[in-house]
Amino acid sequence: MKIVMIALGLLVLAATPVRAAGPEHAERFHEELPILATLRVERLEHRRYDGANTVDWRLHGWIGDGTNKLWFDSEGHRTTDGDVEEAEVRLLYSRMVSEFWDVQAGVRHDLRPRPQTTYGVLGVRGTAPWFIETSAHAFVAEDGALSARLEAEHDLLITGSLVLQPSVEVNLSSRRVHEREIGRGVTDVELGLRLRYEFAREFAPYVGVVWERKLGQTADLARAHGEDAGNLSFVTGVRFWF
Amino acid sequence: MHPKSLLIATIALLMAGPGPAFAAGGHGHGQAHAHDTAAIGRPAAVSAARRTIRVEMHDNHFTPDTLRVKAGETIRFVVTNKGDFLHEFSLGTAAMHAEHQKTMAVMMEHGMLTPTGIDAERMKMDHSAMPGMDHGVGHDHANGVLVEPGKTADFAWTFDKTVDLEFACNVPGHYEAGMVGTVVIGR
Amino acid sequence: MHREPHTLSRRAALRLAAAAGLAGVVTAHAGRHAFAAADRALDLAVERTRITIDGETTRAIAIGGSIPAPTLRWREGEEVVVRVTNRLDEPTSIHWHGLLLEGVMDGAPGFNGFAPIMPGETYTYRFVLRQAGTYWYHSHSAGQEQEGMYGAIVIEPAGRDPVRADRDHVVLLSDHTAEAPAAVLRKLRISEGYYNNGRRTLVDFFRDAERDGFSATLRDRLAWGKMRMDATDLADVTGYRFLVNGKGVRDHWTGLFRPGERVRLRIINGSAMSIFDVRIPGLAMTVVAADGQDVMPVRVDEFRIGVGETYDVIVLAREDRAYTVFAEPIDRSGYARATLAPREGMAGEIPEQRPRTVLTMADMGMDHGGMDHGDMDHGGSDHAAMGHGAHGAHGGSAGHADPAPARAVGWADAATPPGAKALAYDDLQSLTRTADLREPAHVIDLRLTGMMSRYVWTLNGRAFDDGEPIRVAYGDRVRIRFINTTMMAHPMHLHGMFMELENGRTGRLPRKHVVLVPPGRTLSVLVTANEPGEWPLHCHLLYHMASGMMARFVVEPRAARL
Structure pTM? Predict the structure, then answer.
């Protein structure tokens, strides 16, 4: 819990306006840039596996000015019969450090699987050269276990509205976590390829394929439980934002 | 007449030719020229004029902007440039001016004319290389003058027909900007 | 502080008077006449309205009951009084774009002691007209200008107009969107590329690969990708309808002429965000004024006009037919169209749209190592490049049959057909001599900066609220160098004083209130700081200004500068 407290403390501190007192209000250009807020559901999709199907989501939202943001992430999935198997939320302070990069710090809380777990988070998020949307976050669990997640995706415009998006996600762990069936090292990789049609920038249904592969010890654990280490799914979903 | 004005007037002769001659690559321009100016009257010796009309050039307009003459009358025009830029006083129909403007634009492009004056050297050197610019120097039917800033020039013209005449400056852009007036030819 | 006590007390007096119900009959302050003595007095209300363009009705804001606002026809030397009443539920302001006047009358909130006009309040502007020419007026608050708060100002000279015309038409270009300006800005800030519908696609890739070769095309795409820049980033906002005098393409505004007349068109770019290429197929245009100031006539077939700029042109329409005034934004996302015709109800032919250009590395400032060696007409030369036929003018080639090139490369390339003449900044030459021939006392470098992907626009890397004012001493002659480090063109506007564009026309530098600085280029201007006060110096692209691309240009009394 200590980590959570520290993280929250940092968040509050960081969110405090740091702008030096300017000239008195009447002398300023009176139109101040408003605080912005947005919510983006990047993925809300039905995954059809060989066996059971799932509904997966990934979304983020933020509120702030151009430089300082309060950032919210959530992702997870539930089976089609209603069990939420994984659900995580993150609350981060996100600060612009260059045109293309934000540094993020805060907390992550996993509601599922149980027992619930809380982590401290430190990471970066931004646009790498060649327009590769990238994020890299490190997580410290309450017991000190370290893990990390790298995500990257790229929009390839086939036409102005038809967009092919390859994506990759890699998870790592510093130690074996029994409750989560996670081994040490690279735990899993997820490759995705989604083709969306933007009816509007804000609304785009898509179809795609996702290949998940557990690796190393994690894969061994899965096999020990009689599960496949690799899974291919066909996805249909929608992406929208406000 | 001052020697300088004489030079200017001579150059005016060079340029007074209407455009079709130039556009046609120099063939038969002499006749076209003579024919065109003949349609609006004929040049005269300054001494033959009974009446003098003084016109001022400014940037970019004339004062006055209407001239009244009688058919058959010979007028001496004394034209003073009170502006900062080179101007022309040229008699012609709107169509003649439109053609003449093309020639003037070419001369400006080739540096024979500058916004403020006449480059006498280039006038001599360049025009042989330019199609349409090789008029002989002996034209005696000048229908206008080019006047540098601060200078005065004169010429005479006999108006023997009633036609729609304009006096205009065909230095590029000046005509469009309104440096043109009407010649009303009465009986 | 020099003028503040004066202006503030005046302002206070007006407020008091307004409170006492006396607004409009205030006579009071030293050195001023009673309103009754003004040569012109005018009441303008600012209010919400609805505007119908080509059948689509949207919300808008009108000044004086119409969009565009009424054309104000004044005479040089007159003293005018304009009472502006705010009937909105938000603060407003009116700025007299290009006019030389006392700071508080300039109408830019937060400058020179001018406070926004609050809802229900009436503010009385009063100034003597110290110039002639074509100008305009617009809101300087929030995005109100985008919503319809713009109108033309035509000031007749006190003496003879060096230009003579039989007809005089205002051609006010603007861009109109059904979206609220705040929503537009929000989208740009959340998702900068939101409005770019012309990004290069895989389809374009294969087309280009066929033309330029696969590896060259790939190299090009990788180079842009590496910088995380988009070669099609010509305009930030699309979805606009482009208007002439408030009319859309279908309703097209018509200006009448009698064949043979000399018609003066006062073309004003009152758009929020759109830079236009303007032409009138079949007619050559003779540019006789730029930004309200007389220039040596230049005959052209087309010109590019930045936001806030004005050009007066003369056309000689000899034929009994309709002509189309055609203005295409540089991203070619549509066009504005007006008709010049001998009678109502006619329509000119609509020409084919020109291709949209694609930016190059030169536009990114990647190949201008030698920029800083006093090459002041660099930007102008660059402009010249857009008229491939700059030397083929031949006294006007309007109606040329040459087709426009199928493709354009680089910001300055308007796809001008060979043989046609496009106006270049270098062509502009003031009709009057440069009055102040002193060498500049100092040079102010103003880097035009920004973070495109964040939609943050700044000057010298600082947003307006965080930036230091630029201070110059009253009477000084200074050089401002606009160094564009971004990939967009910025129409830079200085209030209160003209900028003399250093385009090589020494002794007759054109006087401008807006200079359009091409991407990756440097333009330099000279300013005589003879108007005391605190003047806005900003990019006239509305959403660039709103996101911080503005500075305070302070002309200080000499005594206070020790």
Answer: 0.86
